[in-house]
Amino acid sequence: MKAAILSFLRNSAGEVSGEVLGKELGISRVSIWKHIVNLRQSGYIIGASPRGYRLLSAPDLLLGCEFPELGKKLHHFHSIDSTMDTARELIESGAEEGTVVVAESQNSGRGRLGREWFSPQGGIYFTLVLKPKIAPAYAPRLNMMASVAVAKTLRRLLGVDARLKWPNDVLIEGRKVCGILAEMGAEMDVVKYVTIGVGINANFSIARYGTKVASLRDLKGEKVSRKDIFNSVVKELLRQQSLLTKGELLEEWKGLSATLNREIRIETPGGEITGKAVDIDSNGALIIREKDGSLRTAIAGDCFHP
Amino acid sequence: MKAAILSFLRNSAGEVSGEVLGKELGISRVSIWKHIVNLRQSGYIIGASPRGYRLLSAPDLLLGCEFPELGKKLHHFHSIDSTMDTARELIESGAEEGTVVVAESQNSGRGRLGREWFSPQGGIYFTLVLKPKIAPAYAPRLNMMASVAVAKTLRRLLGVDARLKWPNDVLIEGRKVCGILAEMGAEMDVVKYVTIGVGINANFSIARYGTKVASLRDLKGEKVSRKDIFNSVVKELLRQQSLLTKGELLEEWKGLSATLNREIRIETPGGEITGKAVDIDSNGALIIREKDGSLRTAIAGDCFHP
Fold first, then answer.
1. Which of the 8 DSSP states describes residue B113?
2. Quick check: A162 and A129 in contact, CB under 8 A?
């Protein structure tokens, strides 16, 4: 209902009276008034005059009422320990596919391999729950899917040359602007659920952290629309899910890759591999040609572009 | 300490005095007495005379003090909802590799794909926590490893011709005596933990459930040692873990298979496959030759031996 009220206020040139709103939405003027109070408590500035209500400004928050298509599947938190952990708790209580946990900041955001993910206000942090009917062997493709969804969104909305570093970082001008962490719960032959975590360095500055990382604001020189980026990435992910077992996804990833066809170094659990990244296989593993011409395959590891 | 006292009592011909026990174990007579009281509360019948203590009988329970090698990693419950769920809760609280949750009965024991697993008293129900450093693609091998461990144990301890039905049932005389459920938590390229659940129809009768299932007591005509079977399967699992990525495991599975080289029917998520099971691939998928000679691969599904 709040989403509908916001939509009305946004689409009208002047004030809209409580009576008109109530009639259009099929609820009483008092109910409208209660929702207006509620919206104001959430940070919306809504003017009221004898002629009606008027939306003066909206908070820069990823609130459910901004994304009516997600509806009750969106769980918004101002601050949370980790969207990944909260998503998993929701799954244990029966959360369905398409559930999204989004937070304005995380106290203990997680990255791959238990690493910390810096999550101050101004970033975009969310976890999407999917339940694809695939074998665990297809799992690495979820990383590819997520990084493709983010890169495509940033290219389209910001006009930047977003590229992918294997396995799942999104780079702009060679600097990391987004990390992805996908986890799953599975039986041995079938995935039960997947949680895809996305952390985008959006509207805070991290220039002081060196040349390997950047925020979208650092790179663009101005604030970006967190709402538009969030909305687009979630939609891309939900749409691309059907491509998980198809070759198309691999082609998209390859087309956006910053890792292929360059000299790289990979630290894997089994040791270091140095050479030229020549391809990825159907499971998302990176194929590297070493100096002596032999081919090596890396399933997991940290990749460095020297 | 209780394990040590039990061991002393079991290995002595007659009574053992509290003084001797205390000296050997480095604790006071009063402490010995407290442990004896505790053991009696757990169901051990321990006689006491002026000459000392004597173990008269032990309860048929899979208590921690019976398995000193597992030590504090063994969590025993008389009744529990599901050893799988409890194991996962323990993992969330930091449980390490080798943690075992065992229950005398389960209220809502789980099988594959959310099915129920009948878990009355007299069966053997446990979940073992492993943290192998493998990619999720290797996961199906955990099923193979677990079924091999159970079949080898039953063959050795009971002298039965235990065989394996793909993907992970243990059969004796064509009837299912054990089910295995392995689940994992993983990032896309690396497994974080695995919970291997084993349910063995041991000392209760299920003859009335038809010819597809049986208990060890039904088949042997007498009670079996739940302690010996439990102990052996856990040890086999811990030992075999190092074989997960090796070809040896596949060979062992093939050697024990009741599915290979016979006409079968498989219900998979993608439809039904009928034909002769000719091999398994390195990921544990079953390869079937259909009537027209074409080869099909089944990653997941229910297999029927007509």
1. G
2. no
B214 and B176 belong to one structural domain: yes
**Residues of B in Cβ contact (< 8 Å) with A269:** 133, 190
Identify whether residues A285 and A153 lie together within a single domain.
no
- Domain check: are B215 and B246 in the same one? yes
The single-letter DSSP state of residue B260 is T
pTM: 0.84
Single-letter residue type at A139? A
Tell me, yes or no, whether B9 and B98 share the same domain: no
Cβ proximity of A100 and A75 under 8 Å: yes
With contacts defined as CB-CB under 8 Å, which chain B residues touch A300?
A: 135, 189-190
Q: Give chain B's length.
A: 306
Task: State which residues form the domain around B50.
Answer: 2-57
pLDDT in tens, B87-102: 999 998 999 999 999 9
Nearest-angstrom CA–CA distance, B224 and B220: 8
Question: Which residues have CB under 8 Å from A273's CB, separation 6+?
Answer: A265, A266, A288, A290, A296, A298, A301
Q: For the domain that residue B267 is a member of, what is the CATH number? A: 2.30.30.100
Residue A64 lies in a domain: no
Of B133, B167, B192, the CB nearest to A269: B133
Interface of A with B (CB under 8 A): 112-113, 133, 135-137, 139-140, 142-143, 167-168, 181-190, 192, 269, 283-284, 299-300
What is the domain count for chain B?
3
Residuewise pLDDT in 10s, chain A (306 residues)? 889 999 999 988 889 998 899 998 999 989 999 999 999 999 999 999 988 999 999 999 999 999 999 989 999 999 999 999 999 999 989 999 999 999 999 999 988 878 889 899 999 999 999 999 888 888 888 889 999 999 999 999 999 999 999 988 999 999 999 999 999 999 988 899 999 999 999 999 887 777 789 999 999 999 999 999 999 999 999 998 888 878 888 999 999 999 999 999 999 877 899 999 999 988 788 999 999 999 998 888 889 988
Q: Which residues of A touch B85 (CB under 8 A)?
A: none
Contact A72, A98 (CB under 8 A): no
Q: Can you tell me the ipTM of this complex?
A: 0.76
